[in-house]
From TrEMBL:
This is N-acetylmuramoyl-L-alanine amidase. It comes from the Bacteria. It comes from Bradyrhizobium elkanii. GO terms for molecular function: amide binding. InterPro entries: AmiC_PBP1, Peripla_BP_I.
């Protein structure tokens, strides 16, 4: 018998300044869709309707509107940047649809119409900054793309660094897709900061990494670079210059879990032995599975029923156990720190002892407290909303 089909929208840019990551998200999402459609566990099939906003921010609203009005989807997976999510958010709330957002993001948002599958700031920014403060420096030079993710990430970083009696040396911003990085690299070489925090997105980041590596090597400088977004496919794009970047993420291809080894083997069988999954792509894969399992348990695609069925359901994903915190629609994830190597992979040197609950508003954080011996972050004895 033919399974009934449930339409699901997938929005990810296949062209534009961050097309590489958009393509990775689509590859992972379609891999999950095909797997689900071929499993007897599910009594339905997912019909994927893909839209390409081409990296044009206003187009995200347009393609989302098309999926809802003309296709009738109730669930949408995708968006890579927070700028694109902000374009989609009003229409999914107005029409009462559900966006399954795979990318790590800056926090300080909680919509009933979004499932936040990627890392919250307490999963990536906090462990990274704590590590830097304890092991590298209390002074950080920030360079990033001029949009909300960089703004908020820099703000949280500034609070953490200032509480440790450190300082942010500079915050330099480029427009999305901007390739003129020479003036920032020249300033870095001139000022010689102890560390550089890179929150650039897409092609801007690759151009900066290559220029930064060349300029610092020529000047005889060894300045560590930090990231909360760099992933394996981007290491290949940036080339050898990307080695040595300290990155905070919930997923790396090198995670030694049987679920991840099986996932990577399936990935390489599908896309080639020399390809690698990305963190946001893997999150899109997880999002499809979380949605499918919720659809199966709910017995309907109605978003209220699906949201209730999804909350608290544990899924042993490639990155480890993942489940949705029903109080805020964000995922429980395991933070990790790694350094990129010359082979285009990451060497993991720290991970949390157990999955960490999402804290998108950082209300449980005491920024003045020191991390525990194992590197985990303490809860505040009182609630503190970050200003």
């Amino acid at each position: 018998m033919t399974k009934p089909s449930i339409p699901v929208g997938i929005i990810c840019s296949q062209h534009g300044p961050y097309q590489a990551m958009g393509r990775e998200i689509l590859k992972s999402a379609m891999m999950a869709v095909d797997e689900i459609n071929n499993q007897d566990e599910f009594d339905f099939a997912i019909s994927a309707h893909v839209r390409d906003p081409r990296g044009i921010i206003s187009e995200y609203h347009t393609v989302c509107d098309d999926l809802i009005r003309n296709v009738g989807v109730e669930h949408i997976i995708g968006c890579y940047t927070s700028a694109s999510r902000k374009q989609v958010l009003p229409i999914v709330e107005r029409t009462d649809r559900l966006l399954w957002y795979p990318a790590r993001y800056e926090g300080f948002e909680c919509s009933d119409n979004v499932i936040y599958v990627g890392a919250s700031p307490n999963h990536n920014v906090l462990p990274l900054v704590r590590y830097v403060l304890d092991n590298l420096s209390r002074e950080i030079f920030c360079v990033g793309s001029n949009y909300v993710w960089t703004w908020e990430t820099n703000r949280v970083t500034r609070e953490l660094v200032t509480a440790a009696k450190g300082r942010i040396l500079a915050e330099r911003l480029l427009e999305l897709g901007e390739s003129a990085v020479t003036h920032i690299v020249d300033e870095i070489v001139r000022r010689r900061p102890p560390v550089v925090f890179n929150t650039l997105v897409g092609s801007s980041s690759y151009d900066f990494i290559r220029a930064f590596h060349a300029a610092t090597a020529a000047a005889g400088l060894d300045i560590p670079m930090l990231s909360c977004s760099l992933c394996e496919p981007e290491l290949k794009i940036a080339g050898p210059a990307s080695a040595g970047c300290i990155t905070s993420s919930a997923y790396f291809e090198s995670i030694r879990l049987p679920e991840n080894r099986a996932f990577v083997a399936r990935w390489k069988a599908r896309y080639g032995e020399h390809s690698s999954p990305s963190v946001d792509g893997q999150s899109a894969y997880v999002a499809v599975y979380l949605l499918a399992r919720a659809l199966q348990r709910a017995g309907t695609s109605n978003i209220g029923e699906v949201r209730r069925a999804a909350a608290g359901h544990r899924y042993n994903s490639p990155q480890g156990p993942v489940w949705i915190d029903g109080s805020n629609n964000h995922c429980v994830l395991t933070p990790r720190l790694a350094v990129s190597n010359a082979e285009g992979q990451f060497d993991i040197f720290w991970e949390a002892e157990a999955p960490v609950r999402p804290d998108p508003y950082l209300t449980q954080l005491d920024i003045a407290a020191s991390p525990a011996r194992d590197g985990t972050l303490p809860n505040a004895p009182h609630l503190r909303v970050v200003k």
